[in-house]
Design a protein that fits this description.
Largest sheet: 4 strands, mixed
CATH topology of the largest domain: GMP Synthetase, Chain A, domain 3
Low-confidence stretches: none
Order of helices and strands: HEEHEHEEHEEHEEHE
Mean pLDDT: 87
InterPro entries: BON_dom, Lipoprotein_DolP, Transpt-assoc_nodulatn_dom_bac
Pfam family, one: BON
Keywords: Signal
Protein name: BON domain-containing protein
Number of strands: 10
CATH class of the largest domain: Alpha Beta
Length: 218
């Protein structure tokens, strides 16, 4: 099992490996396998890239992000400009049902809300907003339409896990409890835990997932 110092060094190396991340702008604190990133960056995509990099490191049991986005004067946008850019980007993205999503912008903080049929549509909307200059933070409150979960959903999710190169399917159990999907078992990184949750969300009718997967470094 990795020590906190080993995890910290691995996170720093992973940050340095990212072409759009300046690791000197980001502080890394590790305590009992829990990683916190701090600092100020000039682009929301840099914040996302740094957080994803940390989550990929083996041995990271949990993550807390405290990276702030502060744009230079050349890239500062008004809330109206940000809102218009998001609307236009939604129109160009076929995965986003723009007529079902509402957008609110306040001081660069964006809230997207509404109801869609699929989890990938909700995720696509968030990814679009991430790419918009001027965005400092995203609150994704989009929900999915309630659809009855069929009996074969556990089998479908299990097959999705096996198709994924990012998930070790043998260590994960899928249960349906009171209409909710529960994931149990062992994974080896936060990114694998998140990948399993994302794969499960792609099944029809899955709106709430109880992710009890345990991150264990071995």
């Amino acid at each position: 099992m990795k020590t906190d110092l080993e995890i910290k060094n691995d996170v720093l190396q992973e940050l340095a490996w990212q072409p759009n991340v300046d690791e000197t702008q980001i502080g890394v604190v590790v305590e009992n396998g829990v990683v916190m990133l701090t600092g100020v960056v000039d682009n929301y995509l840099v914040k996302v890239a740094a957080e994803m990099a940390a989550k990929r490191v083996k041995g990271v049991k949990a993550f807390a992000g405290d990276i702030h986005v502060k744009y230079g004067t050349n890239f500062q946008k008004t809330d109206i400009e940000i809102g218009k850019a998001i609307v236009k980007a939604f129109e160009w993205n076929t995965a986003v049902p723009e007529d079902k999503i509402s957008i609110e912008v306040h001081d660069g903080w964006v809230t997207i809300s509404g109801e869609v049929e699929w989890a990938y549509q909700r995720d696509a909307a968030a990814r679009v907003v991430e790419s918009i200059k001027g965005v400092k933070w995203i609150n994704n409150t989009i929900t999915m339409k309630s659809v009855k979960i069929t009996e074969d959903v556990t089998e479908k999710i299990a097959k999705a896990f096996k198709r994924s190169a990012d998930i070790e399917a043998d260590g994960i159990t899928v249960d349906i409890i009171d209409g909710l999907v529960k994931l149990r078992g062992i994974v080896h990184s936060i990114s694998e835990k998140k990948a399993a949750e994302k794969a499960a969300y792609l099944s029809p009718g899955v709106d709430v997932i109880i992710n009890e997967l345990e991150v264990i470094d071995n």
